[in-house]
Amino acid sequence: MNASPLVSIRNLTFSRGERKIFDDISLDFERGKITAIMGPSGTGKTTLLKLIGGQLFPDSGTIEVDHQNVHQLSRNQLFKLRKRMGMLFQSGALLTDMSVYDNVAFPLREHTQLTESMIRTLVLMKLEAVGLRGARQLMPNELSGGMSRRVALARAIALDPMMILYDEPFTGQDPISLGVLVQLIKTMNDILADLSSIIVSHDVEETLSIADYIYVLSGGKIIGAGTPQQIKQSESAWVRQFIQGSADGPVHFHYSNDDYIKDLFSK
Amino acid sequence: MIQRLGHSTLASFAKLGRASIFCTQTLAGITAIIPRPALLINQIYSVGVLSFLIISISGLFIGMVLGLQGYYILADFGAEQTLGVMVAASLVRELSPVVSALLFAGRAGSALTAEIGLMKATEQLSGMEMMAVDPIKRIIAPRFFAGFISLPLLTLVFSAIGIFGGHIVGVGLLGVDDGAYWSQMQANIDFYDDIINGVIKSIVFGFVCSWIALFEGYDAMPTSAGISQATTRTVVFSSLAVLALDFSLTALMFGN
Asked: Could you tell me if A57 lies within 8 Å of chain B, comparing CB atoms?
C-alpha cells in the first residue's frame, strides 16, 4: 500500500447500543484506486461510509481523510472537506421537490458562483455521463430506483470530487444499466487520475471486476483483504463462504436465536 | 418502575436539550436567508398563503357566531349597539391569535413535520449534509421564519374577516345600526392594548408552533410509524402550548 493513503482508519471501534459494529479495525484506502468494502448485510458497511463522512462519531480510534482527522474538524472545516467528497446513497437521496436537472445543479448552485449557462453545460455533461440527459425535466418520483441512483451519481460527481463513496451502487439495476454503471465507475477512476473510489457492496462479481483492493468485513472484524485475485484464492473459510454465497459456513444465515424445534413446541 | 420513570425523565430532558440546540441553530440560520430571500418567499407561500383559505373561512364563521351569540346576550340588556366592540374585542384579544394558531398547527405545522420527517427518512437531509450544505440553514430556517412571519399576518386576516362576519349577522340580519357597530368599535378598541397585544400573542404562537413542528420532524424516527407519531405530537404539543401560553400572556398583558 502507498505510504500516504487518502483515507486511513486506525483502531476503529463503533457500537450501536450493546452491539459492536466495528471492533478495533484498521483500514487504508489508497489514492487513485477503487477500494471495495464487502461483507454480508448488517456488517456496518454503510455505517463505515457515514463514519468516513463524519456523520457518525466512533467510540474510539481515528479516521483521517487526506491527513485530516475527520472527527476533530470544526463544522466549517468538515464541510470544506465534504465539498471534496461525493457520496452516492443507497436510496439516491434525491431532493424530491426538485427536477433531475435541479438536483444535479444543486451542489453547483450552493457552492460555486458559476453563471446559469455554465451550470447548464456542466449539468448536461454529468447527466450525459450517466445516460440520463433526456430525463432532465423529470421529477424524482417519476424515476425508477436504478435511474434515481444514476442521477444521484451525476450529482455526486458535479463538483469533481477527490473521492466518491458509493453505497451499494449495483443493487436494483437492470443488467444493461448495471453493466454501464460498472464501466462508468471504472472509467471515471481511470480517467481522473486523482479520483479515489470507495465502494460498499455485497455484489461479488461486479465488485471483484473493478476493485483494485478489497476488504471483507464480518462480525465487526476484517476477515479478508487483498486484490480481487487474492480474495478469489483466499483460503479463509469466511471469505470463501461469502464469495461462493453458501449458506453453510462460519457466517450464520440465521439471526442468533433459540433452538428451532424447542421454539416451535414452546407455549 | 422507578427505572422506567428515571429513563423517561432523562429522555424528556435530553429531548428538551436537543430542541433548544435546534432552536438556536435555526435562529442562526437567518444568515443564510438574508442573501437568498427567494428561499423564504417560497416557504411563505406554502406555509402562509396556502393557509389563507382555511383561516379566512374559519374567521368568517367565528365572526358570524360571535355576532349571533353576542346579539342575543347584549339585547337582553338593551346594549346590542355595542355588538361591534364585543365582536372586535373577542377576536383581536383572544380568538384570532388562538384559533389561527390552532388551525396553523393543524394545517401547516403537521405538513411541516411530515415533510421534514420524510426528508429524514429518505436520507435527503443526510445527503445534503454530505454535499456540505447545512440542512438547518437550507431547509429548516426558511420554513421557521416563514411560519414566524405568516402567523401574525394570518391572525390579522382572521380578525378582519371575523369582524366582517359579525357585521353580516349583526347589522345585515339582526338590525344593529351600521354606524353604531363601527363607531363603538372605533371608540373602545385600543390600538396598543388590544390589537398590538393580539399581534404579540400571534408572534409568540408563530415561533412556538413553527419550532415544535420543525423539531418534531427533524427528531422523528425515520420510519412511517415514527413520522405519524411525530405529526400527532406536533398537533397535540402545539395546541397545548398555544392554550397554556395564551393564558400566561393574557395574565401578563391584561392583568393589573
From this structure: no
Mean pLDDT of B94-120: 95
Residue A14, in any domain of the structure: yes
pLDDT digits (tens, 9 = 90+) for A120-147: 999 999 999 888 899 999 999 998 888 8
> Which of B7, B39, B131 is most worth mutating to test chain A (most A CB atoms within 10 A of its CB)?
B131
Alpha carbon distances (Å) from B226 to A96, B135, B240:
20, 20, 21
For chain A, which ranges sit under pLDDT 50?
1-2
Chain B residue closest in CA terms to A82:
B132
- The reply to whether A241 falls in a domain is no
Query: How many domains does chain A divide into?
Result: 1
Q: Is residue B57 within a helix (H) or strand (E), and if so which, with residue range?
A: helix B52-76
Q: What ipTM goes with this model? A: 0.84
- List the CATH number of the domain containing A147: 3.40.50.300
pTM for the full model?
Answer: 0.87
Domain membership of residue A192 as a residue range: 7-227
In a domain, A220, yes or no: yes
Contacts of B88 (CB under 8 A, 6+ apart): B159, B163, B166, B185, B189, B194
